[in-house]
């Protein structure tokens, strides 16, 4: 049984750069899983995946040419159907055996055993293992079908479909070509190197020779991770030589890595006069349009230099550098033109242009939305006792840059350009900063708005969106969230919790709903639905942050609408749970909850005159004793102290349940004991539902 390394490579036209790493890893993973499922791995040593602009490939060490034979047992049919009363094969069994190619005399060797509640016949046979030559093409074809490709294309006269035209297929097992046909291509040993630096078609001697041959003869670094690391090393070294830094570059690095096969970094330059344009515009132009890496000084200010990752390594790169500088100049000129034209019009003067811009056909125009945001931001700022006029002004102008030339060309700059234009118009720094940051946080880990006025505008923007779409019944479903409501919900929660802000979420939802025209929000119960949606997002957010599930459930069971108090409550419950009294009190609390669930109607306050047993009297007096202290701690938001005081009730609670029958036959006694338990539960569960801590 021969064992050797395996290579599979698809040589294609240029693949989509942003999808390349995922395509490469998925392609290789599916092939590896296919080999493993057919027992073709002599040893599971993993695999290496390769992804370059024009190729997807995998190499797997220790692959068998033929899998070992194996015993296969299959159920034939129930005994009562297979055999007659005398134990002879029925017609149904004989027909089944004929279909499977099993000789009738083999019935004597069948095993009888229980299958569920009925006895069945099972047949065991030796089955030859899979042959690599026979199954590899189908494994590769299955891997191709499993790739995350949103849109397929055809090429030439064949019927094959792929994300890009495929020109060659290499399948080698050691030095041997594995025969097969995939995407209308016969497998071979030929590949191609770099479009310009390679010597042409390359014959691969063995599967093991794939990477070194491509490196030496093809001038291609096929391994995505190695190519990315090589680019990063060159970028960092070149930036350091320029006494500059790269800023944030990880996303662009991944994309550029998918565009080049043999990366070399060069330095480009543009006229310093362009630095008069806001640097965000120039950075976006260079990164998004040209895939250049801007350079910054030690203070983070943009320099008039940039790094080019070329696909060519030349002794004299002057033509490459000059060509790239010539290409970027018109882009920078466009950015400067847009900026200069936009500054001729104030943000206020742009507001009428928002009227014909539809926000949503059921929720009106962007101008109508701006009017709602202005009112809501002022209301939120008033609740925070900050400058409501500044917050309202920022909300009024926050969307005006959407109709500017710069944002029309670069939508990613919305808010950022609004800040520049607001300052140009003479607006205060508070207003300008709130305009820029009202979209924050835009994603997990993004910075929060700075300052309460900015937070008020950001909250207004997100709450208006959520209330509006929930109010017309446009809720997120499954993985579909076209209006970004999950992101908006997490943004609201993070602002309220992390700023932190002493605002009630339910009241904020009500404030937002009040800003819509009467009769516009027609979905029944949408405010309660939205609050449920927010709590679900909060539960996931807290669990992802590492909080214990039972601690989160205990706090959220009381549905706290002051998000700024959630973290202190979590901390308090975590401290309480570590106390020696916690387990017993949580179990007792769970018992109390279960007892009270069965009570119908209202219960009066416990009457001291009806207390009979010493244990219930002791518990009553302890509850009366600690209640003011617990309530004081809760009112002062000293939740840890409140729970520590409650821990002192353990002895009295244990004695009560050990020596008192709650469900006494005498009605008044029973009702009084239930009333005492209700009072105890109300006292114990002011911070969290402690019963959730009980296993």
Automatic annotation (TrEMBL):
Belongs to the class-II aminoacyl-tRNA synthetase family. One of its GO terms (molecular function) is glycine-tRNA ligase activity. Residues 587-686 form the DALR anticodon binding domain. Keywords: Aminoacyl-tRNA synthetase, ATP-binding, Cytoplasm, Ligase, Nucleotide-binding, Protein biosynthesis. It catalyses: tRNA(Gly) + glycine + ATP = glycyl-tRNA(Gly) + AMP + diphosphate. Pfam families: DALR_1 (PF05746), tRNA_synt_2f (PF02092). SUPFAM superfamilies: HD-domain/PDEase-like (SSF109604). The keyword Metal-binding does not apply. Its main location: cytoplasm. It is found in: Cytoplasm. InterPro entries: DALR_anticod-bd, Gly-tRNA-synth_bsu, Gly-tRNA-synth_heterodimer. Tetramer of two alpha and two beta subunits. Signal peptide: none annotated. This is Glycine--tRNA ligase beta subunit. Its EC number is 6.1.1.14. It comes from the Bacteria. Coiled coil: none annotated. The keyword Oxidoreductase does not apply.
């Amino acid at each position: 049984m021969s064992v050797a390394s395996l290579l599979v490579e698809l040589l294609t036209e240029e693949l989509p750069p942003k999808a390349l790493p995922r395509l490469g890893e998925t392609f290789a993973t599916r092939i590896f899983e296919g080999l493993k499922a057919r027992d073709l791995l002599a040893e599971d040593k993993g695999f290496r995946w390769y992804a370059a602009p024009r190729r997807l490939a995998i190499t797997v060490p220790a692959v068998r040419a033929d899998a070992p034979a194996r015993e296969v047992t299959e159920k034939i049919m129930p005994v009562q159907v297979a055999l007659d009363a005398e134990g002879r094969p029925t017609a149904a069994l004989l027909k089944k055996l004929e279909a499977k190619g099993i000789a009738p005399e083999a019935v004597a060797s069948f095993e009888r055993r229980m299958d569920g509640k009925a006895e069945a016949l099972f047949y065991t046979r030796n089955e030859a293992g899979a042959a690599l030559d026979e199954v590899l093409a189908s494994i590769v074809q299955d891997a191709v079908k499993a790739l995350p490709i949103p849109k397929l294309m055809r090429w030439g006269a064949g019927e094959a479909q792929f994300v890009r035209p495929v020109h060659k297929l290499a399948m080698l097992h050691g030095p041997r070509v594995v025969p097969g046909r995939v995407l209308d291509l016969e497998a071979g040993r030929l590949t191609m190197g770099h479009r310009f630096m390679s010597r042409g078609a390359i014959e691969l001697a063995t599967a093991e020779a794939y990477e070194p041959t491509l490196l030496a003869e093809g001038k291609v670094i096929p391994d995505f991770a190695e190519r990315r690391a090589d680019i990063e090393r060159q970028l960092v070294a070149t930036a350091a030589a320029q006494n500059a830094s790269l800023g944030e570059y990880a996303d662009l690095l991944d994309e550029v890595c998918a565009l080049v096969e043999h990366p070399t970094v060069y330095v480009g330059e543009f006229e310093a006069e362009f630095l008069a344009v806001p640097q965000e515009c120039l950075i976006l132009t260079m990164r998004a349009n040209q895939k250049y890496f801007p350079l910054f000084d030690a203070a983070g200010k943009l320099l008039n230099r940039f790094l080019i990752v070329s696909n060519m390594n030349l002794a004299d790169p002057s033509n490459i550098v000059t060509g790239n500088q010539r290409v970027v100049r018109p882009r920078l000129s466009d950015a400067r033109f847009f900026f200069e034209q936009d500054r001729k019009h104030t943000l206020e003067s742009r507001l009428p242009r928002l009227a014909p811009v539809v926000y949503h056909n059921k929720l009106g125009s962007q101008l109508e939305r701006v009017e709602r945001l202005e009112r809501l931001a002022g209301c939120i700022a008033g609740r925070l006792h900050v400058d409501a006029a500044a917050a309202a002004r920022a909300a009024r102008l926050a969307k005006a840059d959407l109709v500017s030339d710069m944002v029309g060309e670069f939508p990613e700059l919305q808010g950022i350009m609004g800040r520049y234009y607001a300052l140009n118009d003479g607006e205060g720094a508070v207003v300008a900063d709130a305009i820029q940051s009202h979209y924050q946080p835009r994603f997990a880990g993004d910075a929060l708005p700075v300052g309460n006025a900015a937070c008020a505008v950001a909250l207004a923007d997100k709450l208006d969106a959520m209330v509006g779409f929930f109010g017309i019944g446009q809720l997120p479903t499954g993985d579909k969230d076209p209006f970004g409501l999950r992101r908006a919900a997490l943004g609201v929660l993070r602002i309220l919790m992390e700023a932190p802000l002493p605002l009630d979420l339910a009241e904020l939802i009500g404030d937002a709903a009040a800003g819509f025209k009467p009769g516009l929000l027609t979905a029944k119960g949408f405010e309660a639905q939205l609050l449920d949606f927010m709590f679900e997002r909060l539960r996931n957010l807290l669990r992802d942050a590492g909080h214990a599930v039972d601690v989160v459930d205990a706090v959220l069971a009381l549905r706290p609408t002051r998000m700024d108090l959630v973290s202190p409550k979590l901390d308090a419950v975590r401290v309480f749970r570590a106390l020696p009294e916690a387990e017993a009190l949580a179990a007792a609390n769970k018992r109390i909850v279960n007892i009270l669930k069965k009570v119908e109607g209202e219960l009066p306050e416990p009457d001291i005159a009806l207390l009979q047993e010493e244990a219930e009297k002791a518990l009553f007096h302890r509850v009366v004793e600690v209640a003011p202290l617990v309530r004081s701690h809760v009112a002062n938001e000293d939740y840890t102290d409140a729970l520590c005081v409650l821990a002192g009730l353990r002895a009295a609670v244990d004695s009560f349940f050990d020596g008192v029958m709650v469900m006494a036959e005498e009605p008044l006694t029973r009702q009084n004991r239930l009333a005492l338990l209700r009072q105890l539960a109300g006292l114990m569960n002011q911070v969290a539902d402690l019963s959730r801590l009980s296993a």
